[in-house]
Design goal:
Helix content: over 70%
Low-confidence stretches: none
Number of helices: 6
Structural class: mainly alpha
Length: about 120
């Protein structure tokens, strides 16, 4: 149950990131992501950020659906794979964008993954 709770928190975090990327003001995005507000006001950048947001939203929704409806062995395996995916993407983000991504997104997914493995 602990592993499921951690996994659900990772899913909720992905949905929160989607909201930040798709719907929040450039001021809020600049504060959270550490990107210059002028850059975030460029139409193409806003479109790219919203596109990234839709992926985070889909990932978050998928984690929540799997956690709620499929928490037998297959669900545990699937949630584990999703956590591995998030850790890999967070490491890539840490290497290419901001090291904080590994801590904010990667660490919760890694802890959830370990909890899933040992549950």
């Amino acid at each position: 149950m602990f592993a499921l709770g951690l996994s659900m928190l990772v899913g909720l975090e992905a949905l929160y990131i989607m909201i930040l990327e798709m719907f929040m003001s450039a001021e809020k995005q600049a504060a959270v992501f550490g990107i210059d507000k002028k850059v975030l006001n460029i139409k193409e950048v806003r479109s790219l950020l919203a596109n990234q947001g839709i992926y985070n939203g889909a990932l978050g929704a998928l984690i929540l659906v799997v956690g709620i409806f499929f928490m037998a062995n297959a669900g545990k395996i699937f949630l584990s794979l999703l956590m591995v995916y998030i850790v890999i993407v967070a490491l890539y983000g840490a290497l290419t964008v901001n090291k904080k991504i590994a801590l904010v997104q990667g660490l919760p997914a890694l802890v959830a993954l370990l909890a899933l493995i040992f549950s």
